[in-house]
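lol so apparently i was supposed to do this last week
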Amino acid sequence: MVTQILKEEGILSLSQIRREMVDLAGGKGANLGELLSQGIRVPPGFVITSKAYSYFLEYNGLRDKIVSILKEENSSERASERIKGLILESKMPQDLENMIYTSYDELSKMAGKEVFVAVRSSATAEDIESASFAGQQDTYLNVRRSNLIEMVKAVWASLFNERAIEYRKSKGIDSAKVEMAVVVQKMVNSRSAGVMFTLNPADGDPNFIVIESSWGLGEAVVGGKVTPDEFLISKSELKIIDRRISKKNLKIIYDPESGRNKEVIIQNPESESLSITNEEALELAKLALKIEKHYGMPMDIEWAIDADLKFPENVFIVQARPETFWSSKGRNGKQEAQREVTERRVLIKGLAASPGIASGRARVLMDVKEAKEFEKGEILVTKMTDPDWVPVMKIASAIITDEGGITSHAAIVSRELGIPAIVGTKDGTRVLKTGQEITVDATRGVVYEGKIVAEEAKQEVQKGGTFSGISRDVLLSLFPVTGTKIYMNLGQPDVIEKYLDLPFDGIGLMRIEFIVSEWIKHHPLYLIKIGKPDEFVNKLAEGIAKVASAIYPRPVVVRFSDFKTNEYRGLIGGEEFEPEERNPMIGWRGVSRYVSQQYEPAFRLEVKAITKVREEMGLKNVWVMFPFVRTTWELNKAVGIMEDEGLRRTSDFKVWLMAEVPSVIVLADEFSKLVDGFSIGSNDLAQLTLGVDRDSEILGRMGYYDERDPAVLRSMKKLIRTAHKYGRTVSICGQAPSVYPEVTEFLVKEGIDSVSINPDTVIYTRRLVASIEQKLLLRGRK
Ligand code: PEP
Ligand code: MG
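anyway here it is w/ magnesium ion bound
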């Protein structure tokens, strides 16, 4: 029998909920209800209230059982395991189940078909703090009717995550008494989606709303995968002032079969027609105004149009946050900026490769030989960078290139240096002029005319990830311990100082090309020829030792050189030794050099430098890694040369190889017998698995270069499984986990041993990995 209370308050539609109903609907539910009541349309849904949760507990007699488990078990881990098990196994009372289905069926009726829903936890007032502390924010997406009840119970069970129990214990909150609500919301079946701003992002003008729109899910626009359609709408008249149709080459859609989002290439007429109607654009603008009023500040809003519903009920807001670029200037700065920028315009767009904002004078350099002209603080505009450019890049306030994708040299170096960079602009060197004042917004991939960055915003960017005034021990205690090691990528010995306070467990990739091109400057074979081989050995050893001693005893995985022939040619004396190859990217690079008669003497110098660091300087935390390995025979041969120089694998000297040519994955069992561990070079692995030049801005813009492609992910998974069979470790040092949290999640779930990421994502990744591991542990115990 349904009790009266359950009938009235067990389930509430979002439209019945208001801000003050946190105890019944939880924080999330109350907030969504409040937005709806203000006329801000969010996807329709309902809340299974805390009363319903209570009813479920009482119906199954769970309260007493929970109290006694909490008393019996000293370990929160065991308590969590047992209580979660109880909740998941208990029966959903029939009357409550009927009510949930009725509410769900109403959503389906509105849509005219069975809908997918998101099922989210919504913590009540008493528990909001522990919920956010313990990451107890379980959300299950794309849930169907058939697994709805199970997912609701899973969300309830998450109330008893181990860390939540721990946290409540420490605060004296009785876990047996806390309650939870569950929000069930229709997943938007996104026909079109995008972002909008309640000011003009090109110049900060608050009199306009700008809408960017494309087909399918909003990720295509947010992730910069397409050039979106654009609407400029005046706030005062709510009128469309300008409209631009773009060619949209792809869309992202949910694929129910695989249960994942996928990219689909689209053709004309779809690609070249407007992705929203004028009517929809104006409806969005109305919602934007309401949101700006509600929050009292300029907002950056994600929206979507639902294919299942009728206008205007199909126009939804999915996310709203304060706009930060223009708003970060403070009140005075903002006025000044607005006065200054009334006529600013977008000059060019590209791929956002290294986040940050900077203003300055552009300097267009077509050849590194012109580098002398470059002045500190200018913005470097060039075709593409290579190691010769690094000294210039170091003094630039931002970098813009015509070519290259997000794993290009320019992208990798800029991120390491913490300098904003936009790559793949196609014709930046033609459009931008030396001496021109420009602003680079490398978070969004846009270059504006004029100087529009306040000093403090610039400083913000340059601060990087360092903290001051706190001891490293205290600092580290603030970050979660993870089973998966969090390594950092670093090539430039000097910048280690800047990142010392970050919570990393070692350097998972030290690219020595930086030391060679900046410190040594000469080609190693040339130094041998002129009788100065020691110069190479000593400087290389010095650079490596600088990093290894700074972070001792944490390991530094030094990668033997991986210059390509065109890059080696740029070194002093290089031309004599380096052929001109048609495809240096798949040419004489990596191990193929070490085993060649011509380069072998230079490889021996690299080995000597490692020996010097380990033996003479006593830095036993230095390991090595072989790049661009293609075959087992060449690896055997190269290891043989290394051993011949006296460097052998031992328990404290690990030898890794980079898994970046697909042959290493295909023959993972054979390779496992030769080394201690692998590190996935996802930049090259994606390039070679998909047959996509990682520096092609054409393919990059079309979305072909994507480390998340199932073929690439499946290779990584296979490697982890095989390597583990042989007791070998697997790491990853390509850009993928620094850019895509979902890749990190995938790899952690597959059991990767470490991830090595860019300095700017160390903190974020450590937290992310901790939360994934926690979830895995708890799931595993079900
Ligand atoms: C990779 O290929 O993923 C990698 C880390 O090496 P690089 O980018 O230097 O080729
Ligand atoms: Mg590589």
